[in-house]
Design a protein that fits this description.
Number of helices: 28
Oligomer: single chain
CATH superfamily of one domain: Dimethylsulfoxide Reductase, domain 2
Radius of gyration: 25 Å
Distance between the termini: 60 Å
CATH topology of one domain: Dimethylsulfoxide Reductase, domain 2
CATH class of one domain: Alpha Beta
Shape: globular
CATH architecture of one domain: 3-Layer(aba) Sandwich
Strand order of the largest sheet: 5-4-17-16-15-6
Structural class: alpha/beta
């Protein structure tokens, strides 16, 4: 596993040039293997590793310009202390010792009264195990701080998949090239899963049918063989209607069902009530579409589903994901490596999370758990109150739902707030102290993926810019100031990387940090033609695909698949829909990654400005023309955007690609001024896409 020939030749010809192996840290299933070319200590190029089987030499537009992020003119380089009111972003430069001494003193004071009044606020701004989930978790566990349930993105779907399959397992995405039918369900991989999309395109060239299931005609949907534009949050109803056809027309694999599933007889009886006509009415599509999709799925061999997190961000999202995950076992699609379903591959890695995070350091009485999705209520009304927060890998003022309440919480003068970041984010404007964080080019890390089966190592390519420090080092220094004497707080970053892959699990066989660091990546010890459930072996309590889930029953939830509607769909909330008749979706903008990259001029210019896409009929009813400035609103808030009348959303749906930083919007607002703190049926998950609104021309 050597650097590509061009990089090798350049390094050989010039002793001031080196090529460093790295990994993309951002919240994307592709977790790309990268090569960083460094000349005279400066990173001059970032490229995909052509030898990595999944990355295959290519990076998304955002990450291929990563040097612009590391060397951005607005990059934070020194610790800062607030000057003036919260929210105005006024700061003065201070030293590291002064900053850390102040933080430690404030944390000691709060912890002496109640350590649960301290809250870590981190998320997936970086997903490497070191900077995301190691020394920081040890620190807060030892402190006895409140625990954060990180629910913003994916927990409903993961809990739903777990109820059916036993965990976050699924197909090897490299095998989609051999699928004959691919249902791209709730996903826009051109924007958010590029390397899966290249495989789907190859499958299409080989004759496969690609079906996009999405209320919005995304870039991906435009390039698929078929686009099914169902109403938001009705995916579970579509899956139930498909089951009705599959079972009723005998398009199922009874041998697979009898050997490897649990509860089929009960499912068969249940599914009789979910006719294709019923499903079509719920989804807002034609009955024939439901019937033909089921027939295609039941007859194509192998058939594959790429499920993504967009479809589970509503009140019934967990059960919807659980229901869709039943489909491959009904048809026996799991028999082939190119058949089955994938939401996430994360549970294949079996890293040693206990060694990374050290939950044994927590006090005997476990601290309370705070749901990230309800941060606004937590910061304004929790008892005991949150008195100190440390924010890292996160920009909650921009990304958390019900933003008005979130800002009210961060505006409290009695809330001590520390933000660790590479930039002055919307959240950093409310901080008492800001600490400059390294970017991926400046620290060690080790990565798993939720979209492939390779462990990756990240080595620092350049020295930290300015006085920036890795998250691990900040918490190491804070632990010393807090008087934590446990030896784990003296582990180096490379020590922690070794611990991560030291679980002894068979999937990590033959893997060690030194060789991983040298080579940059290594595939898990899984078969080349990996078909995880070809002969059963599900990770459920029964060892079978559970159409009937005793685990759900124990939680008081219907153990069989059923339709659990969104809370704010017009059909499920007609009274609210009279006032706010439009479904609002805020999917990722192509040039941002959540709120990452949204501060960089290149990517803001590419996006243009905050915009709202709407169907021509919805626009005409409201006297809105393409290019008008419009106000989008509901009872929670409002913000203004530029109208784009293009018929990409289906009628009754409006779409605002997100997430813009508030400070770069004309009215300093964004999509999350409208989203709610309501949580989903499973996993306490956020329900960003369960949101009714109205739109009018802006005055």
């Amino acid at each position: 596993m050597n650097a590509p020939r061009g990089a090798q030749q350049l390094a050989a010809a010039d002793a001031t040039v080196k090529v460093v192996r790295a990994a993309c840290p951002h919240d994307c299933p592709d977790t790309c293997a990268m090569l960083v070319t460094v000349k005279d200590g400066v990173a001059v190029k970032v490229q995909g590793d052509p030898l990595h089987p999944f990355t295959d030499g290519s990076l998304c537009t955002k990450v291929s310009h990563y040097t612009e992020r590391s060397y951005a003119p607005d990059r934070l380089k020194h610790p800062l202390q607030r000057v003036g009111p919260k929210g105005q972003g006024g700061f003065k430069r201070i030293g590291w010792d002064e900053a850390l001494d102040e933080i430690a003193a404030r944390l000691k004071h709060v912890a002496a009264e109640n350590p649960e009044s301290i809250l870590p606020l981190s998320y997936a701004g970086t997903m490497g195990m070191l900077q995301y989930s190691s020394m920081d978790r040890r620190f807060f566990h030892r402190l006895g701080a409140s625990q954060l349930d990180r629910t913003l993105c994916s927990s409903a779907g993961k809990f739903g998949i777990k109820a059916t399959l036993g965990g976050s397992y699924g197909m090897d995405p490299e095998h989609y090239v051999d699928s004959k039918l691919i249902l791209i369900w709730g996903s826009n991989p051109i924007t958010s899963n590029l390397h899966f999309w290249t495989r789907a395109q190859e499958a299409k060239r080989r004759g496969a049918k690609l079906v996009a299931i999405d209320p919005y005609r995304s870039l991906t949907a435009e390039k698929c063989s078929q686009h099914i534009a169902l109403l938001p949050g009705t995916d579970g109803a579509l899956a139930l209607g498909m089951m009705h056809v599959l079972i009723g027309e005998g398009l199922i694999d009874r041998d697979y069902i009898s050997r490897y599933t649990l509860g089929f007889d009960l499912l068969e009886e249940r599914i009789k009530q979910y006719s294709p006509a019923w499903a079509a009415a719920i989804c807002g599509i034609e009955t024939e579409v439901v019937v033909q999709l089921a027939r295609d799925y039941g007859t194509a061999k192998p058939a594959a589903i790429r499920l993504n997190y967009g479809m589970q961000r509503h009140a019934g999202g967990g059960i919807a994901a659980r229901t869709i995950a039943c489909l491959p076992a009904l048809t026996g699609a799991w028999r082939d490596p190119a058949g089955g379903i994938l939401l996430t591959t994360a549970d294949n890695y079996n890293f040693d999370h206990a060694a990374l995070e050290r939950p044994d350091l927590m006090p005997a009485k476990r601290p309370r758990v705070i749901n990230h999705s309800r941060l606004g209520d937590v910061l304004t009304a929790a008892e005991p109150p949150v008195r100190a927060v440390i924010v890292y890998n996160n920009n909650p003022v921009a990304v958390c739902p019900d933003s008005t309440k979130v800002i009210a919480g961060f505006s409290r003068e009695d809330l001590f707030c520390v933000v660790m970041d590479s930039f002055l984010t919307d959240t950093a404007d409310y901080a008492d102290i800001v600490l400059p964080a390294t970017t991926q080019l400046e620290h060690y890390d080790i990565h798993k993926s939720y979209g492939h089966l390779y462990v990756l190592a990240n080595s620092p390519a350049i020295a930290p810019v300015g006085e920036s420090l890795p998250n691990t080092e900040v918490f190491r220094r804070l632990a010393a100031r807090m008087g934590f004497e446990e030896s784990c707080f003296r582990d180096s970053d490379e020590d922690i990387a070794r611990q991560a892959i030291g679980s002894g699990h068979a999937n990590l066989a033959g893997m060690d940090w030194e060789s991983l660091k040298q080579n940059g990546w290594q595939r898990l010890a899984l078969p080349e033609n990996f078909a995880p459930f070809a002969q059963g072996g599900f990770h459920t309590p029964s060892g079978k695909c559970e159409f009937y889930s005793n685990a759900l029953k124990a939680q008081g939830i219907d153990p069989l698949p059923f339709y659990n509607p969104p809370a704010e769909l017009p059909s499920s909330n007609p009274q609210l829909a009279k006032k706010y008749p439009l479904n609002f979706l805020s999917p990722p903008a192509r040039n941002f990654l959540n709120s990452s990259f949204a501060n960089l001029r290149r990517f803001r210019d590419a996006e243009g400005e905050p915009s709202l896409e709407l169907h021509s009929e919805d626009a005409a009813k409201r006297g809105i023309s393409d290019g008008d400035r419009v106000r989008l609103f509901n009872d929670r808030g409002s913000f203004t955007l530029r109208a784009r009348v293009n018929d990409k959303p289906r009628r009754g749906v409006v779409v605002a690609p997100s997430v813009w930083w508030k400070k770069f919007a004309r009215d300093r607002r964004n999509a999350n001024d409208l989203t709610s703190q309501r949580t989903a049926d499973l996993g306490g998950a956020a329900t960003y896409y369960d949101c009714l609104v109205e739109v009018e021309r802006a005055v």
